[in-house]
Design goal:
The model has no long low-confidence stretch (mean pLDDT 95). By secondary structure, the chain is an alpha/beta fold. A five-stranded parallel β-sheet has the order 3-2-1-4-5, sandwiched between helices.
Length: 143
């Protein structure tokens, strides 16, 4: 399949398994350079290695999405390592089920504020991309 994305750069949060991993893999298959983050450093390193084996540039860091400063630092480091950001996929989720106050807090901090913080950090890079190429994309995924 050719989605016309070859040479673009994408950031995918929560990308070491499940939907996020599938998205990162598809981007790599399409020739997209990919930055990923997730909680476990060993899983991030393994996915980065797999993505690089597909012939694209890949970058990754272990990040707690609920830590806004760490997430913003990751987005900036990704843009610097890969030469910008054309696509942001906010996929990370707290994967919490329940209705206790701490469940709601986890969902708010990761699912909602994580997406907000990722977008705010990526916005200048996305705007630059849009000015340079005519397009940029943000995808938000929620459970």
């Amino acid at each position: 399949m050719d989605l016309g994305l070859k040479g673009k750069t994408a950031i995918v949060t929560g990308a070491t398994r499940g939907i996020g991993r599938a998205i990162a893999d598809l981007f790599a298959e399409e020739g997209v350079n990919v930055a990923i983050c997730a909680r476990k450093p060993d899983e991030v390193a393994a996915v980065v290695k797999d993505l690089q084996a597909r012939g694209v540039k890949a970058f990754g860091q272990a990040v707690d999405i609920a830590d806004g400063a760490a997430l913003q630092s990751f987005v900036k480091a990704s843009a610097e390592a890969l030469g910008g950001v054309d696509i942001l996929v906010s996929n990370a989720s707290a994967l919490v089920q329940g209705a206790r106050p701490e469940d709601w807090t986890a969902m708010l901090e990761v699912d909602i504020l994580g997406a907000v913080n990722a977008l705010e950090a990526a916005r200048p890079f996305l705007e630059t991309s849009a000015q340079r190429t005519g397009d940029a994309a943000v995808v938000l995924i929620s459970s």
